[in-house]
Specification:
CATH topology: TIM Barrel
Shape: globular
Strand content: 5-15%
Largest sheet: 8 strands, parallel, barrel
Distance between the termini: 14 Å
Number of domains: 1
Number of helices: 12
Order of helices and strands: HEHEHEHHEHEHEHEHEHHH
CATH superfamily: Aldolase class I
CATH class: Alpha Beta
Oligomer: single chain
Length: 261
Amino acid sequence: MKYSLAKKYRLAYEQGFIPIFAADDYPTDILLEGCITAGFTTIEYTLRRKDAKKVIPTLRERFPDTVLLSGSTLDSDKVIDRMKLKFPQLMTIGELNAYGVDGFVSMVGYSAATIKRYCETHLVMVTASTVTEALAQTDAGAHFIKLAGNDLTFVKSCRAAATFDFCPVFVTGGMTLERIPDGVEAGAVLIGSGCEVVLKGIQPNDVTSEIVRDKMLLYKEAVLSARAKKFPRLAGIECLSDTEWFSRLPHYHPFSFNGCE
């Protein structure tokens, strides 16, 4: 299904927790089945996963109603072409776009030109290393600023009073069930965790789609529960019209309150 950008944004936001398919030994199809049967509307499939070159081109056809984010992306075709010799699963943003992905996630910043090129059709979720950089990426059109969960001090800086709520924070990296409340309290509105974090202690040969489903739902509930406490205005927003829905968000967003179909 071809969603509008506002619809993609809303689906990802209402889910709250984003499962991240990173480099692990868990069977891809079991992970995918578990996420889909859990009712997840949004997943992030990273280029760190060795089967990305094979799997990503098939995801749009297999899961037409799912918002597909491609993670661990770089916006330098020159670098990617060279590094494909070592990491053959790498793809350029242009290649990923041709496969129908709905958004791009990175651990580094993008150029303003790249953000502006894709931000009107795709979700753009890029990393910043300073508050100034976070503002510049947001100003260029990034929908979320991805920040590392290992040091929530920086997250708090991006959400400090003097930043006037500009920064829409997506926190990833080591976000276990125990750490999710701290991440949300620091200011994150989206949390992402790798499948290896969610399934820690479960051997790849023992995992089933039912286990994946149940574990993912625990993480989703943890994020939504913590977010409702931190940002009470977000409670129950899934029932609202687009106009009121966007007006409830506790940070900058690029959508007008009218015409967000």
